[in-house]
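Hi support team,

I submitted a single chain yesterday and got back a structure, but I'm not sure I'm reading the token output correctly. Could someone confirm the output below corresponds to the sequence I sent? I've pasted both exactly as they appear in my results page.

Thanks,
R.
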Amino acid sequence: MYDLADLLREHRSTYYEYSSGELRPFWRPKLVQLLVAVTVAFFFHDISDSLLQALLAVYSILIGFSFSVLFHLISQPASTSTETSHHHETELRKERLVKLHQEIFYNVSFFVICSLIIVASVVAYYVLSGISVRFYAIGAPSEYVCSAFFTLRAVSVFVFTAVLYFLLLETGFAFTRIVQRVIFYFNQKIEHNL
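Hi R., thanks for writing in. Yes, this is the structure output for that exact sequence:
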């Protein structure tokens, strides 16, 4: 069974140019995503309940869609052609298609995990918001405790918002990439009758 580090490693290994096999830059775009997420979180750190509810609904649907893709990938063989070809090029296409089939599985698994983290984070945000409301109602035992609580809350809301924006960017790119790769996979299967 794969652990999270193996899944991340396998997902990372799928960032290459399909025709040449050359690895694409991975960490630079992630750093840009992180900078964008922190910048957006700095300016837009107040997230409305309606946005969070919409995120829960959208990601619940996308997770369901992703699980159906995962089940399809698991239930279908990577190559449906059982005849062996004497053409070296056809065999290479089959091998690359099988590899792409496995890689899409890792990409979808990565997307599902990131989406589940988003859903869990939004639920945790609601729970922590409820704790804050209770703290306001009860009142703080001293001014220092109150000040520390509000500072901690402001920092945690900023970190939550930055992480949420980063994961939204990551899952948006991952979902777009999955759709592109699935379309390419089926086009290759149909075009070459594999």
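A quick pointer for reading it: Helices lie at 4-12, 27-43, 49-75, 88-138, 143-192. Let us know if anything else looks off.

Best,
Support desk
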